[in-house]
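Can't attach files on this board, so I'm pasting raw text. These are the components:
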Amino acid sequence: MAKTILVADDDPAILDAIGMLLEMEGYAVITAVDGEAVEQAKSALPDLILLDIWMSGQDGRDICHHLKNLDHTKNIPVILISANRDAEKIALQCGADGFLAKPFDIDDLLQRVQEQLVVRH
Amino acid sequence: MAQTLSQPPMPKRRASEAPSIDTMLEEYLSKLEQKVLTQTMQLQAITDNASSCLFLIDDLGRATFMNPSAQRITGYALEEIHDQPLHRVLHPKHADGEPADRCWISLALEKFRLVRDREDVFYRKDGTAFPASCSVAPLEREGHPWGAVLEFQDITQRKELERQKDDFIGVASHELKTPVTSMKTYTQVLQRQFQQRGDIKAVESLTKINAQIERLSALISDLLDVTRIQTGNLSFQTEEFSLVTLIEEITETMQLTTDRHHLEVDLSGQSSVRADRDRTGQVLINLISNAIKYSPHSDRIIIRAQSGASEVMVSVQDFGIGIPAEKQDQVFERFSRISGPRMETFPGLGLGLYISAQIIRRLGGRIWVDSAEGQGSTFYFTLPLATTATVKRPADATGKEEG
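---
Top answer:
Structure tokens for the assembled complex are below.
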């Protein structure tokens, strides 16, 4: 069965582009804008979450921290994405499993995704 | 008429009516009084109406004069403060709350040093702080210091504008990166699809689009970095790494960006440094892309690294248009750009070398250039070897470049 990836970003074009890429690679994709991410993660229990750090509604750091403290979501790997290259430290502080700076190469994105899925399964 | 003009002026009194010494003295004193009065009035008009705060201080640093602007802006009257050093009144602590032992005022007095347009934080009578730009001129009479003139302006408004500008550039850069990210993702997805179908022409065009997106992305990053440097928020993550390996990696990547130039590498010695690897890479990319950009008619670029006892020196040499001697001091400044011999300009914001210089200084190194117009330029930088490296605090990193 295809692995499910939740992509959360407040920019619809980025959601669409990443979604298109991941579907092309054979993943099932769920997208979430802003704070929907938490609810989506809880109900869909994806295999991996790609989370934008500066989402306008709720900061990706808080979402990450929250998910990592819930029993049924804490084992889902989270990769934080940010336009701020210095945010890597912040990403690791809030319990994220990986970090990617915007704009990224899709090869890097796919590599991070594969790494995390291999680690867990 | 001509005759009248050539005659000497007629004396007002005849010799028989010569004035007494008393009258002459009286006249002289009256003139002197008039002169002193005029000069005092002029001086008072200037100090009364100057928008800057003006203080005169004695050799012990106590205020002996302050103008109305100084009273208005600080909230003090001269009688309230004349019995203690002005430094203690205006500058009891630093902006971070640390007690201030000395400031530009005491420095000027103690070291007899002229201070010009230095920014500091001063305090009003009501305890509130304000940013000020101050100048202090020490005074001497017959070789003896007797005080100083202090002049400063409240620069709250200027600081606020600078902050707004920096905020704006920060937000704008962030906003610009968002569409760049989706453009880049779409482009690479298409590239992958055409690759799978074997459409080489389409893949080539998309590769070019991707390279242009990279360029746009680098420009945005530069803007963001400049904002961070200005606000003191450029962050560093230090680690120990081999500079030689980094140079090899970067050279390999940069070789892909030029068909014309051959990037030669001459590396010797041990080069383990303790610095920010990405930022050091950023400096190398910058110097190499400048070398490529400013040597459109030559085909060689040489990258060297040599380690000494305590530091490693890296140089990037090109054989391009070079930099005129009078421009060499400015290349590390913001927005500085070099034109070609026929005044042709080269693309870019003129931020790369400024950012590079700031990075190298923060990493405890030096950066400079050696260049001859029409013959090419060699940019050098040094980094302390791992055993000696310490990253400077932003506040300390205000040294001047060499070169």
